[in-house]
Amino acid sequence: MKTFKIGGVHPHDNKEYSSHKSIVEVGLPSKVVIPLSQHIGAPSKPLVVKGDRVKVGELIAEAVGFVGANIHSPVSGVVQKVDEVKDGWGMSMPAIFIDVEGDEWLESIDRSSSVNSICKLDRDEIIARVKDAGIVGLGGACFPTHVKLMPPPGKKAEVLIVNGVECEPYLTCDHELMLEHGEEIMIGIQILMKALGINRAIIGIERNKADAIEHMRKLASRSLGVSVEELDLRYPQGGEKQLIDACIGRQVPSGALPIEVGAVVDNVATIYAVYEAVQKNKPLISRVMTVTGKGVKNPGNYLVRFGTPLEDVISLAGGMPENSGKVICGGPMMGRAMSSLDMPCNKRMSGILILDKSESRRGEVMNCIRCGKCVSACPMGLEPYLLQKLSELGRYEDMELHNVMDCIDCGCCQYSCPSNRPLLDYIRVGKATVGGMIRARQAKK
Amino acid sequence: MELNLIVISLIALGVTGLLAALVLYLFARKFRVEEDPRIDVVQELLPGANCGGCGFAGCRALAEACCKSESLDGLLCPVGGSEVMDKIGEVLGMSVEKSDPLVAVVRCNGSCDVREKRSEYDGVKSCKILNSLYVGETGCGFGCLGCGDCVSSCQFDAIHINSLTGLAEVDEEKCVACGSCVKSCPRHIIELRKKGPKSRRVWVDCVNRDKGAVARKNCKNACIGCGKCQKECPFEAITVENNVAYIDWRKCRLCRKCVAVCPTGAIHELNFPVRAQVKEEVKEEVKVEVKAEVKVENEVKSSDDIKQ
After folding, report:
1. What topology does CATH give the domain A288-360?
2. Are residues B68 and B139 in the same domain?
């Protein structure tokens, strides 16, 4: 069975809590807070002011720069203010506050549940729709999707790789989305193939989602050029570069984008959003997220409008369990533990994982025993033990020489370390510093 | 025979050694690098801490810079201070501008009792990492994290974390104002300020840029940017920017009017004699505390009695 070639680990997937739980829509809150920075790149520029009346789907903030994304109102109501808000980590971010009144949608949006399979738009029109709808990669990185659809001059896309891997333990939202909206995803794939001018697409799914593989294979047999690749269980197979390696056996060079090897990778949730934007004229205003954990009463997959307070979603899932010790935004491998639940749901949030007290403590940090497990686990072929030491000593120039910028923050090194060393913590700090150094150097030029 | 061998080898080795010494001597003469002899003299005067506080890579580099440059303006050994610079000036025959001795000041007064803990951090004990992850255990995203990056950066054992307050504290006797703690603090809390006459200093003990209400919710000692001190200051030394006041130590004349008007007690004064009216208050407080202690003791005794 296919998988990527270098490194990787195999943590227990813990998906049994929330898999096969059908998607439940979370009710409308009375107030929403829409962060203006829900994507990679500069925060969007607000287009509304206090007192403005908005409808569902109305553009409320505009993309800034090439790598930016529009933001649309997920509710109807009155803008209360545009102000700073603290996120789940206590950092300030600009946001639009809206008081919800009713649920009035823009008339141009098709709200019917019928599947519309005919797309008459041409390439440029599709890209414009995707851009206008503010679609970003919903796998977690939040890279604006329209940028991926416009390869730089001289580069040609050959294959679209659809990410249905969901290698992150606990999370099941993509799995459920494939089961419930497979048909729409398949149309979305056709639309993206048209936009990229290619005739080949591969859907990569890990073998622990056998029903999704079967379902997507059945659907793929009806559409031309689309195939489903059953992949072995290995984390971080959902990483862009790992998935390309697993599906088509090509390695993206250090520092380059997937387009270098002719691949474009999109998550199934993103493709569903593309379908909705192009066929239904519905901008990205909601997403499916998983709420799960050992102690959670009703773990499951929830469809949330952006801006809904996290507490609403958690209370729908049965509230905070008594013994909870840590709440993680995202999955256990790449997610971040939050210090406050006072946070609105946004494009970035693929899941909420609630761990109990015994699961949430870090182990005692011991000395490095030079076992080299981190080196063999690193899917990017780096030397985590060395990078950690260099970061600790503040030798950032040396970190750059040792390719720290290739690190994808997957956490395999820290997971595999028998001495519980805080490898990724140090590497991340070093990566941020080196990134700053590179940007400063480019600015000088 | 054997003796002969020893003698021959001794002579051979001796001659080789002499020849090598001669070659070395000639080469040393031929390729000698002319160096300002004053550099060694100046280096002798410098403290030899190699802390880098002067901005050069060690004491020798500063000595070279002193000898090369035409005036000593802008060159200062913070460890030796003006005393050492005067001596260097004498050696080099240059005048030295008087500079005020500086000292590191930690601008955060969010001790454990005024800054409520909202979460628990069990990761690496490093401010740099903690700062990159989130706001910290308290709600304040600007204040001292107390992991001690400054402590490990200090070569002079002059900064420590007070276990009662959880804040970094500078030992002004030991601090030489080299500035390594300033660089190590990821939240830029530490600043080098004028040591002041008799070590008297006034500064705003907070760098929180949140709006007043938010800042106050997170920490009772926070500066709320109300601007009262700015209005009160007769020397225009105080500016309020981004919801936080800052006292320019170059303009401050230590009148302490700002300290009196600050509603949150965010402005700190150090080493001043206690004011008359304040004295009484302090006395009362002390009395109350003493009483409280007595009470506690009694309680403890009574509970012990019960056990017995």
Report:
1. Ubiquitin-like (UB roll) (3.10.20)
2. no
CATH code matching the domain that covers A112-279, chosen among 3.40.50.11540, 2.60.40.1120, 3.90.930.12, 3.30.70.20: 3.40.50.11540
**Is B292 strand, coil or helix?**
helix
Nearest CA in chain A to B183: A394
Residues of A in contact with B186 (CB under 8 A): none
What is the pLDDT at residue B276? 61
Distances (CA, A) of A13 to A17, A253, B177: 10, 30, 53
CB-closest option in A90, A92, A365 to B134: A90
- Shortest distance between the Cα of B137 and any Cα of chain A, in A, equals 8
What total of structural domains would you count in chain B?
Answer: 2
Q: B261 and B232 share a domain? A: yes
In A336-403, which residue ranges form alpha helices assigned H by DSSP?
A: 357-360, 373-377, 384-393, 396-401
As a CATH number, domain A29-100 is 2.40.50
Domain that holds residue B176: 102-272
Position A255, amino acid = G
Give the other-Cβ count within 10 Å of A2's Cβ: 15
Judged by a CB distance cut-off of 8 A, whether residue A365 touches chain B is yes
Q: In what order do the strands lie in the sheet with A336-337?
A: A24-25, A300-305, A286-292, A351-356, A324-329, A336-337
CB atoms within 10 A of CB B199: 13
pLDDT in tens, A389-405: 999 999 999 999 999 99
Query: By CB neighbour count within 10 A (0-12 exposed, 13-18 middle, 19+ buried), where does B103 fall?
Result: buried
As a whole number, the mean pLDDT across chain A is 93
Structure tokens at A349: 């949030």
ipTM of this complex: 0.88
* Residue segments in chain B with a per-residue pLDDT below the cut of 50: 279, 282-283, 285-308
Question: Which residues of chain A neighbour B122 with C-beta distances below 8 Å?
Answer: 361-362
Give me the CATH number covering residue B88. Answer: 1.10.15
- Residue contact B129–A422, C-beta within 8 A: yes
CA-to-CA distance for A410 and A122, rounded, in angstroms? Answer: 37
Task: Confirm if A35 and A85 have CB atoms less than 8 A apart.
Answer: yes
Which residues are CB-neighbours of A370 under 8 A, at least 6 positions away? Answer: A385
Does residue B81 share a domain with residue B209? Answer: no
